[in-house]
């Protein structure tokens, strides 16, 4: 499943089996001072307006 993680100023998309796993993946990658605001399951990295989300974690 893909999860969109909302941070202070950006979004990150990760593939994970659960929200907890997604949270752990992002925790290692976020910058100092950033915090996770929300985690939402998504079907695509494309927004409804057609623009691409900002960052993919590999």
Structural class: alpha+beta
**H/E series:** EEHEE
Strand order of the largest sheet: 3-1-2-4
Number of strand segments? 4
In short:
This protein is α+β, with helices and mostly antiparallel strands.
Describe the overall structure.
- The protein has 1 helix and 4 strands, in the order E-E-H-E-E.
- With 58 residues, it is of the alpha+beta class.
- It has one domain.
- A 4-stranded mixed β-sheet has the order 3-1-2-4, covered by helices on one side.
- Strand 1 (2-6) and strand 2 (11-15) form a beta hairpin.
- It is globular, with a radius of gyration of 11 Å.
- The two termini are 14 Å apart.
Question: How would you describe this structure in keywords?
Answer:
4 strands, 58 residues, globular, 16% helix, single chain, alpha+beta, 4-stranded mixed beta sheet, 1 helix
Protein topology:
Elements (H helix, E strand, L loop, with lengths): L1 E5 L4 E5 L3 H9 L10 E5 L12 E2 L2
Parallel strand pairs: 2-4
Antiparallel strand pairs: 1-2, 1-3
């Amino acid at each position: 499943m893909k999860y969109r993680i909302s941070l202070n100023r950006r979004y990150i998309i990760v593939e994970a089996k659960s929200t907890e796993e997604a949270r752990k993946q992002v925790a290692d990658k976020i910058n100092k001072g950033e915090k996770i605001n929300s985690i939402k399951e998504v079907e695509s990295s494309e927004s409804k307006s057609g623009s691409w989300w900002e960052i993919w974690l590999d």
